């Protein structure tokens, strides 16, 4: 190899590395450094003294209850989003629907999966609140009072439904490529061997899609577990989930203990980190199956 070609390769390598510098700086400034700051702060008290008290306080009944509610909401919205999202993705990829429906659904899913926070909370309050459009129409036109059944948008069930608005389209976006990866030859081979459609799905498709399904569900769980803006705007402090309790500890006037808030954040990091690690592992297995 000549000196000129070696010099060109070196310059190309430098340019390639320079291309990822903005991402590395962004990740360092807004992800890695804040995470390390939270982890370190969880082991100090407001006076700057090293302590494990913040970690011990995580096991108090009120904080354990907040974690339990957050886990329940995350699991319920993840399972609901995964189930409905799977059938939507299956319908547009393998159900024989017109191509324009697929493109429209994927476009909507790309927008809806990022529609959260205060706008989403306001949309649900304006739709399913006590004086929301759907609630009023059902009461005046059908004589059915939704809230007389015990339904409450500012509750566990209401927050779960609200979360599913962005969980379902996210599942569609994640699962569509996995369904696209199913080879026609697999169905043809199963039909030649005399397998029914149910046997094909049970013995061929589901074992192949299982890592993708489980990984996507774990990702939905982590996505819901860390959400705060939607829950805070929708329920305020009426539903004691971990992100709202964390916000109260760091920014609140009554429950103001920033270091306990850092410990709460550390617990969230551990839970979502485990979910994301499992998701990456399952995604790797799914990609290996579909090659």
UniProtKB/TrEMBL annotation:
<feature type="transmembrane region" description="Helical">
    <location>
        <begin position="64"/>
        <end position="93"/>
    </location>
</feature>
<dbReference type="InterPro" id="IPR035906">
    <property type="entry name" value="MetI-like_sf"/>
</dbReference>
<dbReference type="GO" id="GO:0005886">
    <property type="term" value="C:plasma membrane"/>
</dbReference>
<comment type="similarity">
    <text>Belongs to the binding-protein-dependent transport system permease family. CysTW subfamily.</text>
</comment>
<feature type="transmembrane region" description="Helical">
    <location>
        <begin position="105"/>
        <end position="133"/>
    </location>
</feature>
<keyword id="KW-1003">Cell membrane</keyword>
<keyword id="KW-0472">Membrane</keyword>
<protein>
    <submittedName>
        <fullName>ABC transporter permease subunit</fullName>
    </submittedName>
</protein>
<feature type="transmembrane region" description="Helical">
    <location>
        <begin position="20"/>
        <end position="44"/>
    </location>
</feature>
<keyword id="KW-1133">Transmembrane helix</keyword>
<dbReference type="GO" id="GO:0055085">
    <property type="term" value="P:transmembrane transport"/>
</dbReference>
<feature type="transmembrane region" description="Helical">
    <location>
        <begin position="260"/>
        <end position="282"/>
    </location>
</feature>
<feature type="transmembrane region" description="Helical">
    <location>
        <begin position="200"/>
        <end position="221"/>
    </location>
</feature>
<dbReference type="Pfam" id="PF00528">
    <property type="entry name" value="BPD_transp_1"/>
</dbReference>
<feature type="transmembrane region" description="Helical">
    <location>
        <begin position="153"/>
        <end position="179"/>
    </location>
</feature>
<feature type="transmembrane region" description="Helical">
    <location>
        <begin position="227"/>
        <end position="248"/>
    </location>
</feature>
<keyword id="KW-0812">Transmembrane</keyword>
<dbReference type="InterPro" id="IPR000515">
    <property type="entry name" value="MetI-like"/>
</dbReference>
<feature type="domain" description="ABC transmembrane type-1">
    <location>
        <begin position="67"/>
        <end position="279"/>
    </location>
</feature>
<keyword id="KW-0813">Transport</keyword>
């Amino acid at each position: 190899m000549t000196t000129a070609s070696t010099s060109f390769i070196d310059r190309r390598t430098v340019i390639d590395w320079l291309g990822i510098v903005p991402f590395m700086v962004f990740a360092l400034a807004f992800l890695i450094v804040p995470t390390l700051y939270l982890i370190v702060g969880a082991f100090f008290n407001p006076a700057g003294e090293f302590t494990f008290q913040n970690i011990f306080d995580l096991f108090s009944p009120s904080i354990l209850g907040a974690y339990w509610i957050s886990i329940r909401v995350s699991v319920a919205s993840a399972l609901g989003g995964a189930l409905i999202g799977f059938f939507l993705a299956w319908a547009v990829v393998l159900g024989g629907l017109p191509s324009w429906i697929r493109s429209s659904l994927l476009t909507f899913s790309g927008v809806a999966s990022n529609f959260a926070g205060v706008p989403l909370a306001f949309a649900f309050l304006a739709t399913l609140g006590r004086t929301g459009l759907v609630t009023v129409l059902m009461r005046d036109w059908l004589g059915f009072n939704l809230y007389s059944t015990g339904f409450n948008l500012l509750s566990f069930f209401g927050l779960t439904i609200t979360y599913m608005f962005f969980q379902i389209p996210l599942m569609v976006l994640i699962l569509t490529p996995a369904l696209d990866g199913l080879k026609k030859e697999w169905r043809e081979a199963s039909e030649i061997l005399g397998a029914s459609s149910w046997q094909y799905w049970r013995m061929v498709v589901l074992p192949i899609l299982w890592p993708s399904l489980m990984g996507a569900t774990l990702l939905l769980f982590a996505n819901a577990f860390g959400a705060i803006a939607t829950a805070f705007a929708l329920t305020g402090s009426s539903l004691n989930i971990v992100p709202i309790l964390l916000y109260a500890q760091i920014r609140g006037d009554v429950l103001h203990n920033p270091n306990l808030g850092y410990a709460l954040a550390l617990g969230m990091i551990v839970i979502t980190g485990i979910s994301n690690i499992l998701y990456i592992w399952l995604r790797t297995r799914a990609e290996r199956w579909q090659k």
